[in-house]
Each structure stands twice: as C-alpha cells, then as structure tokens.
Amino acid sequence: MDNAVAPIFVAIYLLTVLLASTEIVSLPIAALLGATLSIFFGLHYGLFTYEEAINFIDVKLLGLLIGMMIISEIAERSGLFRIVALYAIKLAGGDPLKLFFSTCFTSAIVSLFLSDITAIMLIAAAVGTISKLMGYDPIPYFVSAAIMINLGGTSTLIGSVSNMIIGTSSGLSFTDFINYLAVCEIALWFLTGTILYLFYKPRLGEKKPLSKYDPWEGIEDRAETYKAMIVVVLFLFLLALSDHWQIGPEAVALGCAVLALTVSGVEPGEVFKRMDWETIFIISGFFVIIGSVEKTGLLAQVSQSIFEVSGGDVLKSALLILWSSGLTSTVMSNITVALTFSPIIKGLPEANPVAAWSALVLGTNLGGAATPFSGAVCILCLGALKREGISLSFSEFTKIGVLTTFVQLGFSSLYILLRFGLWG
Asked: Whose CA is closest to 285, among 31, 56, 9?
C-alpha cells in the first residue's frame, strides 16, 4: 500500500460521504467533487495516469443503466406499470387482507422493472386512490409498499443499481442472479409480507365493497401499452439468453432501448429529459473515487483483513460481508456501498466467491428501508403520506423498518449457509 498518499484518498472518500449525508451539497455534486479531487491528487502524486482515471469508469455498467432507464421510461409513459398495479389491487376486491398482500407483492414485482423512486411514486398513487375509495388507513399500505419495493428486485441483475454494479464487477449474469438468489428473494417476500401484516393487522380495517373502476381508464392509446409490454417481455427474454450468445447485458439493454424508442413514437428528447441522470453522475464520480482508493492498495489490505478475521472460513467471510454491507446501507447509499465493497471482494482469496458476491447483493439491497432516511424510497413514502395530510414519525417507521431489516438479514444468513453448503 502507498502509505504516503492513501490517507489523502481516504479523506476524499469520507468527505464525499459526509457532504452527501449531511446534505451540505447534493449527492451528485458530492460525487463529482470527490472525483475531481481524486483525479487532481492522483495525477499530482503519480498514483495513476489520466487514461487510467478515465478507465475507472465502467462503461458497460453505464450502458446497462441507460438502456434500462429508457425502457422503463417508455413503459411507464405507456401506462403499462400503472395498469399492472391497479389490476392487482382490483383483484383483491374489498378484502383488506387480500388488498394488503396484493399491495405488497405488486410493489415488489413492479420494482423488478422500475427504479425504486419511480415504483414508489406509482404505487403511492394507486394505493392513495384505493385508500380514499375504501376509507382505509393509508399508513400500513404506504409503509409496507416502501419496504417491499426496497426488497423487490434483489435477485435480478436489473433489479437495482447496486445489483448492476455487483453484476458487472463479479461477472455474474442475469441467469446467475436468479439461480443463486431467486429462492431467497421469494421466501423473503412471504416472510416480510407476513411480518408487515401481523404488525399492521389491527389497522387494516373491515371488508368493504370495492367501488367499480377501470384500470385502463386514462390510457389514451392502448396500442402503445401493448408495444411497451412486448418490448419489456422481449428484453427479459434476451437477457436470459445473453449468456449463450456471449453478449453483455448492456448490449441487450441498449438494443431494446433503441427498439422501444423506435416503436413508441415518443420524442427521444422527452425521454432523455426524464431519465435519472443524477444516478449516472453519482456512479461515475464514485467509480473514480473508489478506483483511486483501490490504486493505493488500501482495499487489498482490507480484503486481507477480512480474510484474516474470518480465519479463511468462507462462511464467516460471507456473513461478515452480508451484515457489514447491510448495516452500512442503512445509513449510506447502497450504490456507494456496492462500489466500495466490490473491489474488496475481488481481493478475497477464497474458494467460493459466489457466496461472497451473493452476500453483498443481499446486504446492499436489504439495508435500504431500516429508517425513513435509509433510502430515497422511504423519504418519498413519507412525502406521499404528507401530501395525504398524514404525518408519520421517525420512530414509527423505524420500529417496523428495523424489525424487517434484521429479520431479512437473519434469514439471508441462514440461506447463504444452506445454499452454498457452508455448514461444514
């Protein structure tokens, strides 16, 4: 490790996180400022060249992310995801039990394809409408939707930005994610849904007749919705086959994005305006920051420390990664956590790296709904409730958030033990 300059880059990393967490500046600005300082000091001290600094940024990841954003934006514009959400809620009738679980599972499913921010806004709109129609307390439905959206997509490469980061870093494919983590996620859906139901059962109300409404109401062009549906299905199908064709998921995403733009008839400029460019800049900035820290040899030393603490035991290493990334994600962006931990895991000299990568996927996803400020989806949930004239205290949200987070991490520990045969 380059002991002379390592503290400088660690200080830049900590300054970036501090600026973002205290909201002195926004996260994109903090990330870009940190990247600028990293490049300046890296070049000044000869830690890396300018070309190496540019190569810190993973272009494949950005391609996958941009392609996903375009597909999701066009599908959302067509009303596809809104229709799915409203149909799921309508099938529950006026039964609060069915409505509750319908909301939970629909939230998780929708988050497979949409960013957490878009998913919570979509579900909040649907749940808010139904709550008013039925006269139900909206808090159980809103909070449960936020927690399930945070959980949804854990087992897919495209389920969250942190998964995309881990996927490109580890080389795990779309089918690998499903193979190693789908069983765990589905089990967590039922486990988390049950805990949420038991917690909120007294507040769900009595069964009432459901007012009639048409999920297709407000859809001006059904043909556009069907086109979007075909593109989404095609995208998932091609992702599943991308391994056999030896092409990257970013190529599939960008190809389907071009197809979506072509058949939708939507003005590309309008789509690009609504894309989440902030996330692009956040990831790019942190790639440079983490790449700079990695160049000092510090992360390799951290990898060695984890290996030594675990005594070379794969199970202990995996559990250490699961819990440390999970708890860190309760107070820090899971994008930051994924970018930080990925090079550390690459440096682990262990026999079963898939167990470590799977632990990181679970940890970065599950820690995002412990408190109202653990992630954007929770903050938006509180904002949606406030627009309904309802205030939810920090302690009330945290009580159920911490409970579900620790249960999820505990179950994931057991899953990793059994799935990867690490009990011996």
From this structure: 31
Which stretches of 265-375 are DSSP H helices?
Answer: 268-274, 277-295, 298-309, 314-328, 334-346, 353-366
- What pLDDT sits at residue 347? 81
Render 210-246 in DSSP notation, one character per residue.
Answer: PPP--TTTT-S-HHHHHHHHHHHHHHHHHHHHHHHHT
Report the domain count for the chain: 1
Residue 65 counted as domain residue: no
The radius of gyration of the chain from alpha carbons, rounded to an integer in Å, stands at 22
Q: How confident is the model over 114-130, as pLDDT tens digits? A: 667 667 767 777 777 67
DSSP 29-84: HHHHHHHHHHHHHHHHTTSS-HHHHHHTS-HHHHHHHHHHHHHHHHHHHTTHHHHH
Sign of CA dihedral 400, 415, 376, 374: positive
The range of the structural domain enclosing residue 48 comes to 6-55+80-218+276-419
- The answer, yes or no, to whether residue 229 has pLDDT greater than 80, is yes
Q: Residues 385, 389, 390, 393: is their CA dihedral positive or negative?
A: positive
pLDDT of 415 reads: 95
Predicted pLDDT at 225: 86
The answer to whether residues 364 and 405 touch, using CB atoms and an 8 Å cutoff, is: no
- The answer as to whether 392 is a domain residue is yes
286, exposed or middle or buried, with CB in 10 Å at 0-12, 13-18, 19+?
buried
As a whole number of Å, the end-to-end CA separation of the chain is: 35
Residues 6+ apart with CB under 8 A from 263: 227, 231
The crossing angle, in degrees rounded to 10, of helices 116-134 and 138-151 is 160
Whether residue 267 is contained in a domain is answered as no
The 3-state DSSP class for residue 306 equals helix
pLDDT at 352 over 80: no
Token pair of 371 as six digits: 């408190």
Q: Closest by alpha carbon to 404, among 367, 364, 361? A: 367
Question: Cα 152 to the chain's mean position, in Å?
Answer: 8
Cα dist from 324 to 331, 348, 351, 390, whole Å: 12, 15, 21, 34
Give the confidence band of 351 by pLDDT, cuts at 50, 70, 90. Answer: low
Tens digits of per-residue pLDDT, 52-69? Answer: 999 888 888 888 888 888
| Mean pLDDT within 215-219 | 73
In a domain, 265, yes or no: no
Dihedral sign of CA atoms 413, 418, 422, 424 in order: positive
Half-sphere exposure of 355 (CA within 13 A, CB side): 24
